[in-house]
Write a structure and sequence with these properties.
single chain, alpha+beta, 7-stranded mixed β-sheet, 7-stranded antiparallel β-sheet
Amino acid sequence: MILCITEKPSVARDIAQILGATVRRDGYFEGGDYHVTWTYGHLCCLKEPHDYTPLWQRWSLGSLPMIPPRFGIKLIADRGIENQFNTIKDQIAQADEVINCGDAGQEGELIQRWVMQKAQIKCPVKRLWISSLTDESIREGFQNLRPEKDFDNLYHAGLSRAIGDWILGMNATRLYSLKYSEPGNVLSIGRVQTPTLALIVARHHEIANFKPEDYWELKTLYRDVTFNATSGRYMDQAKAQEALAKITGQPLTITDVTEKKGKEAPPRLFDLTSLQVEANKKWGWSADETLKLIQSLYEKKVTTYPRVDTTYLSEDLYPKIPGILQQMTPYAPLTAPLLTKKLPKSKKVFDNAKVTDHHAIIPTGQSPSVLVGDERKLYHLIAQRFIAAFYPDCSFLQTTVLAKVVDQGFKATGKVITDPGWRAVYGSQKEPADEDKKDGEESDDRILPPFTVGESGPHKPSLKQCQTKPPKYYNEGTLLRAMESAGKTVDDEELREAMKENGIGRPSTRAAIIETLFKRKYIVRQRKNIMATQAGIDLIAIIGQELLKSAKLTGIWERKLRQIERGEYSPAEFINELKGQISEIVLDVLQDNSGRRIDIPADAPSKKSRSKKSTPK
């Protein structure tokens, strides 16, 4: 008998149907040579401190750091989980071969491996690795099953992440709670959540300490076109007025007119983070809301695997793209022009070097008629981006007009779209590239009248008084971007792609980390803004160890975990580093005699209420 183990009952149903295992039993499907069973996500977790020794049951500074000689796993204490695990264990005992059909990612690999280990598996294991749940993809996956050992590094990376979170989260949370909070209250510290909170607190201080300054901009109106002084802003009002007086009543002369052809490439395909950012920008959805919706689209077979961090497709997908476009019948008017000729194979779309386990999020070609409400909106966003990727560049003509009044230079710019290219997919609606303009930026998309070098005439100069503005509070979209780039503001798409290895957390975990900070009452929402609470501000202030709160250092950890995944770094070395670091942190905190305390909101978690299943991340 061949046993397939999936991560969800719904996926088990789909796979069982294709394999002919159509007889429903208690906890599994059966048919022919196959049995198909399932987990409910995590059935196992790392053991808790008290599972190793009774001495760690009680929270005590003297017991820190807690570092087990060997980490072990246990079944999560839940009757439903225990019943399903016993079913899986019985099935594994009877199986000649097991096929791991867990979600094709690091967390999915960890979930399945832990269950198989706990069930003391002895038979051979193969891996189903697919990027969508369509019948075609499942059949193709079963025709190309891979050896379990191909994914050993993926498992080691997931295990290293879990153990690292345990070492840092369990120890630092107890350490800071006992040292700095009132008895019974918990100060949650985590490898990902604390640096994320530090980003938000740093932004709070930037805004709180910001001192606005007045400045003046010199402009002039000539032939109904506003020209801006090339000298930039004036920080001194007297000098600004002196410059204004100098040009008042003097003629403006056009000194140069240049027209330059330009092209604008289509926006990149979506990875999870860019999808969450775009949905937050358009509709104000939280990262968690978008993740749940895209997971639903994946399970309804209309989009590919969502928890990805690449905006590229693998080159072997190229022959399949016309078929997907052809099946997208609701978008026939947009896909028809693409299907009349050979599709371009751009490196900005297809690049094997930029794809590891999974490719960018794209439609599968299955009908979206099963979708409802916000699912439809999200699918439309993905479908438009996918179709636009294969359209030509947008062509435009950029006009720059230079002028002079006495010795003061002025400039006006305008842009005329000569061929909309991919922008035709979006019609008159605002497209992502347009929405990235910063507040206060003047659009250069206006059409300028014809100007002639040497022409001269009267103009209307003016001074505009402005004030410098503080940085904006994070919203969920900008916070996700900051997590992705370890706190650095990066607008360039290619540079952003290159920095992902150093980001805080993984695309699949960032939404949960943000939600955790809300639950801990370290941050609050005010409209779209995310703001630090006093407890969050005080916590970051009291943490003296950069390792616990530095986005850069946490980004380096993330890079090491990815190197483990690729077999380029030792899991043992990663864990040993963390063991040494937590020992230093404990010693440092124990030597603090300041007597400082942090007040925790009344409904924040206490030791008694803190879930035993969770490890702070």
